[in-house]
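Co-fold these.
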Amino acid sequence: MSATPQHSTNIVPQKTAVSREDRMRVSGQRGAVLWFTGLSGSGKSTVASAVEQKLNAAGRLTYLLDGDNVRHGLNGDLGFSDIDRMENIRRVGHVAKLFWDANVITLVSFISPFRSERQFARELIGADFAEIFVDTPIELCEQRDPKGLYKKARKGEIPAFTGISSPYEAPEQPEIVLKTGEESLETCVDHVLAWLRYRGYTEG
Amino acid sequence: MSATPQHSTNIVPQKTAVSREDRMRVSGQRGAVLWFTGLSGSGKSTVASAVEQKLNAAGRLTYLLDGDNVRHGLNGDLGFSDIDRMENIRRVGHVAKLFWDANVITLVSFISPFRSERQFARELIGADFAEIFVDTPIELCEQRDPKGLYKKARKGEIPAFTGISSPYEAPEQPEIVLKTGEESLETCVDHVLAWLRYRGYTEG
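Predicted complex below.
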């Protein structure tokens, strides 16, 4: 131990954390969470991806949390019971908060059918949260059925399928409503970008 | 339904995702995960914070995952049993991967005492992963005891305390070893920065 001259005084046992403001100076942007909610097949991920592309092209740092990168990884231990679906959203909310804290413009695309869980995410994030209701009639979602899930649900092969055998609680006061059955993808994307611009998250 | 002229053709049910490379163009940096492991009181968070400050000052986008922002949020449902501690690290590994994918230089500071869980994180992240062993003798950690945890553990008030009543499995081939008992904080920080520079994550 005599070879360790400076010993216990070397490391001051306290940290001076890099703050959100410090990170903001580096990224040149403020974090926000765009929370897309809607039925399966409503077009959530399509719109979210298109928004992300526009933001990326404009030099904004973004990240999209969706089933593809969360359900198979962090939440790979969860199934589709009500309890597991709520735990899924609880974790997604917390991860979105971490990304928000890192000043990333964070897009979240999950059905998130329950008002209480979206309210939870809203309270977690605070003022930088936008609930985006992708309001597509179920008939149209079922007609699109991109993953063939409605077909399976109608046959009873998927228990608790949102809109058929499990409720979708529509948002009461969403920041943005997108009618993908009436408006073009471009128009839907523009609504979201306008919100970000108006709130000062992006320029121009 | 006649009021919806463009109907199901509006939203093409596929997404063209923004890729890691697209995000790299925006951030001007490649993601990496600096995984700090070591006993309680070893100085993990102190070194990690000091590294983060240097990186932030150099204009690099960083994020620190540690007990403060993960244990009270995402992993607030977990306790300190072996199973819960492993689930804690499993989730942290997946969140670190998401941040890596967003091209953030991600610092992880958890005791993470088990080889298998660090190996899991290493395999999840791949080549951009650095295991940083904060190699401080337990006598020194106990002497520092910044949170008074060793005192409690010795009294038997904390079950399964790493280094006392639960094992710490030292890394066998860590990318970086920091001897906080022998080297100054500045020297420890320089080791980490040199690794990042040498591997091309930062300049000059």
